[in-house]
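Service request form, structural biology core

Requester: graduate student, group of Dr. S.
Request type: structure prediction, single chain
Budget code: on file
Notes: please return the result as structure tokens.

Sequence provided:
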Amino acid sequence: MKPLIVFDLDGPLLDGKNRHYACYSSILEEAGYRPIPLEEYWQAKRALVPASEVLARSGALEYYSRFKQIWLARIELKEMLGLDHLHSGAAELLHKIALAGQRAVIVTLRQHPGRALDQINRLGISEYIDELLVAPHAEAAAGKAERVLGHARRHRLNPLIWVGDTELDAEAASALSLPCALVSNGLRSEEALHRLPSVGVFGSVSEIPLTYFLHPSTVASWRSGERKTTPSTFLNSDS
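Core staff response, request fulfilled:
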């Protein structure tokens, strides 16, 4: 079976810093609160500071429940998604992988699959992948792993490596007994990522050696040596 390379969307490929801050700050400003500065907000988010604590810094803790409702309704609006941009080198990497004849999918947690597909079409990266796989946020890591496994089974592909930027990616990769390469220019800080199981933490996807994607024997050595995992129930399931 041909190998399949798995990329998480938000973080490894897309820089969502401006979208997240625009959503957060617009909600607070409309309610009469003063948002904290962009860099302070992003640093807190990447360090896993709870949203309630972030709001408390603006004296808006009592607005937390309403904030969550508006956030979910606003974060995937077209005008918000338009604030995302590709990380430097992301499109070039996907293109190189496609030119080498390797198969790749992008997997993400989103509320609106159609909007996510429109976004990657607009950004010009859909032509380099098999499919965009979308799971709802409630399904978390399990949903991402199940979507990848389903695609691999339908197309008789062998998942090779998972590229992500959060604990959910590390968990999903582990569920499929896959090596996980983590990048630190996404939704989690380098410090947080070093606490997760992975084959390495890289500054961006463009810093991951291309050989990891093009030579399955490289990844096979991780599976047998550097990274020990327990066979997943996903892989043993007939469902």
